[in-house]
Amino acid sequence: SQQGEEDPQALSIQEGENATMNCSYKTSINNLQWYRQNSGRGLVHLILIRSNEREKHSGRLRVTLDTSKKSSSLLITASRAADTASYFCATDEVTGFQKLVFGTGTRLLVSP
Amino acid sequence: EAQVTQNPRYLITVTGKKLTVTCSQNMNHEYMSWYRQDPGLGLRQIYYSMNVEVTDKGDVPEGYKVSRKEKRNFPLILESPSPNQTSLYFCASSSVGGFSSYEQYFGPGTRLTVT
């Protein structure tokens, strides 16, 4: 079952610009996680935000969570070409013990 | 170095020929999981394991088997592969604690083609 839906599906920006990706989900969650995937490779964990948190930062990453709207956003500031990748949100549903449900991802292209 | 390893990385096989994809982690994680990734469908969970000898079905378990005899290893078995199992497969592991999940560590992936 698909929980998270990312928006947009694809995003193309220039180096130095900010990139914002959104994730919407359907049910109550324990936490929401963001992952990055370089083409065809394994996913890399970026950040985890718990349901009682509203905002979290990690380096150039800023994640927000609005549980009333069942949505989250990932902001990458001052993008670099190396940020080119697919980004996935994953939700930990309250009813699913330890289970992460992944969205279909946003493909980000950062051009030099 | 903390890592999840998978073998093989690439595999082309024929319908019906049994195969096993191995997965091993060196972080002493209790939780391990298998996913498949298909275009437009994201990652879907096949099976997961909470600890040794404890496994359960994910969202798409049909046609797959798993075992967890040792904490570090979680092989994925396709007894009779079919073309619709052509996909990119990922193994992942994480710690457990309470009811909520922790960050998952992913292997590099196994690209399987069944002809």
Nutshell version of this structure?
The complex is a heterodimer of chains A (112) and B (115). Chain A has 112 residues and is mainly β. Chain A contains no helices and eleven strands.
What does it look like?
- The complex is a heterodimer of chains A (112) and B (115).
- Chain A has strands spanning 5-7, 10-14, 19-24, 29-37, 43-50, 55-58, 61-66, 71-76, 85-93, 100-102, 106-111.
- Chain A has 112 residues and is mostly beta strands.
- In chain A, the strands form two sheets. In chain A, strands 2, 4, 5, 9, 10 and 11 form a six-stranded mixed beta sheet that branches. A five-stranded antiparallel beta sheet of chain A has the order 1-3-8-7-6, with no helix packed on it.
- In chain B, 0% of the residues lie in helices and 50% in strands.
- In chain B, strands 2, 4, 5, 6, 9, 10 and 11 form a seven-stranded mixed beta sheet that branches. In chain B, strands 1-3-8-7 form a four-stranded antiparallel beta sheet, with no helix packed on it.
- In chain B, strand 4 and strand 5 form a beta hairpin.
Helix-strand layout with pairing:
The complex is a heterodimer of chains A (112) and B (115).
Chain A lengths: L4 E3 L2 E5 L4 E6 L4 E9 L5 E8 L4 E4 L2 E6 L4 E6 L8 E9 L6 E3 L3 E6 L1
Parallel strand pairs in A: 2-11
Antiparallel strand pairs in A: 1-3, 3-8, 4-5, 4-9, 6-7, 7-8, 9-10, 9-11
Chain B lengths: L3 E4 L2 E4 L5 E7 L5 E8 L3 E10 L2 E4 L7 E2 L9 E3 L8 E8 L10 E2 L3 E5 L1
Parallel strand pairs in B: 2-11
Antiparallel strand pairs in B: 1-3, 3-8, 4-5, 4-9, 5-6, 7-8, 9-10, 9-11
Distance between the termini of chain A: 37 Å
Q: What oligomeric state best describes the polypeptide chains here?
A: heterodimer
Structural class of chain B: mainly beta
Major sheet characteristics of chain B:
7 strands, mixed
What is the helix/strand order of chain A? EEEEEEEEEEE
Percent of sequence in beta strands of chain B: over 45%
Number of helices of chain B: 0
SS elements, strand count of chain A: 11
Rg of chain A, Å, rounded = 13 Å
Helical amount of chain B: under 10%
Using the alpha-carbon principal axes, give the shape of chain A: globular
- How far apart, in Å, are the first and last alpha carbons of chain B? 36 Å
Given helix and strand content, the structural type of chain A is mainly beta
Question: How much helix is in the residues of chain A?
Answer: under 10%
Order of helices and strands of chain B: EEEEEEEEEEE
Q: Largest interface, counted with CB-CB under 8 A?
A: A-B, 26 and 30 residues
Number of separate helices of chain A: 0
Mean pLDDT of chain B: 94
Overall shape of chain B: globular
